Amino acid sequence: MKLLIFLAIFLVGPCQVQAKAVFAHFMVGNAANYSISNWENDISLAQPAHIDAFALNIAYNDPTSADSLLNAFYAANSLGFKLFLSFDYAGNGPWPEEDVYNGQPFVSTFEDWSSLGAKAALEPGVADGLFSWAAWPWGGNDMNTYTDASYLQFLIGLPYMMPASPWFFTNLPGYNKNWLWRGDDLWYDRWQQILFVQPEFVEIISWNDYGESHYIGPLYDNAFALFTIGQGPYNYAANMPHDGWRLFLPFVIDTYKNGIASITQEGLVSWYRLNPATTCATGETTGNTASQLQIEFEPYGIVQDKVFYSALLASSATVTVSIGGVVQTGTWENAPGGGIGIYHGSVPFNGDTGEVIVTISRSGTYQLEHRPL
Ligand SMILES: *[C@@H]1O[C@H](CO)[C@@H](O)[C@H](O)[C@H]1NC(C)=O
């Protein structure tokens, strides 16, 4: 899942005019059981989130993807949504020089571009633009834009597709994957960075990659084969909906594209891990991963035991967090200029356990509340 060249094959119309767009990375392999109506359901959730297209991740030699793509394009065509292909050659090369897909030859790309870096990928004639997979912070740090800046430096005006992801945890020994990267404030921080960097394109990682835990799309019981194939110790996506991470996408995406967005309704989203980091053994999960040439840490050393919350508000308000009935008044670590927009903050677990309820109030009057589903 590290291919850096992006090939845009748009369904509707030629794409001569450059305009900002936001895509979501979609694992076609997880949709092997999708009917057309499942595709329509996903598309009809992406459209109100102001996502422009799915980047359809298809793997080399996956026999199921041809049927899936027929359904996907049928559904997208009927709903006026866009799709393009994202060829996934991560991991298990070597690959043939050229391949045939659906009777049409296409040139494959076999280099691990992210390890070569932006400079090599931009040798003359090789790429029209680049997508970075560096969407997660290093170790116990918060996210920054150093890698994005390096891409921009070498792209010298060519399109840059900036990645945005809410968090990362994978434990799939069958794919030799067992690590996490810090999530925590990431979904808020990263969109602020996108508003600042103003890249040509944004790709959300991901819509439905359940195995890496960063999905923002819906869950389907018949889409979890990867936990069996990847020998996951358990299905850590089941009953863990991440739909809340789509709630403010219309606001941030409109702001990214147009510099302005309207608020039709105030909203509140919160997220947290269900257990303090040192409650149980690590299951050999590492923080960072040597498989991507990183120094590794204990996972409990890089994630913070906190309840994180973001609120889209028309004016400031008080946030309180109850953990098992113990109430803390939260602070806003980030507040929007002018007071209208997304506020963000967190409170520590403080050793408390139990039901989490986050509440927004003004002058003592309850406004919004978020409880676990
Ligand atoms: C599709 O459904 C079958 C039958 O329930 C199941 O065995 C398989 O794992 C599912 N595929 C995916 C990709 O989840």
UniProtKB/TrEMBL annotation:
GO molecular function terms attached to this record: glucan endo-1,3-alpha-glucosidase activity
Segment forming the signal sequence: 1-19
CDD domains listed in its UniProt record: GH71
UniProt superkingdom: Eukaryota
Coiled coil region boundaries: none
Keyword line: Hydrolase, Signal
PANTHER family the record matches: ABC1 FAMILY PROTEIN, ASCUS WALL ENDO-1,3-ALPHA-GLUCANASE-RELATED
Name the UniProt record assigns to this protein: Glycoside hydrolase
Organism of origin: Lipomyces tetrasporus
Organism ancestry: Eukaryota, Fungi, Dikarya, Ascomycota, Saccharomycotina
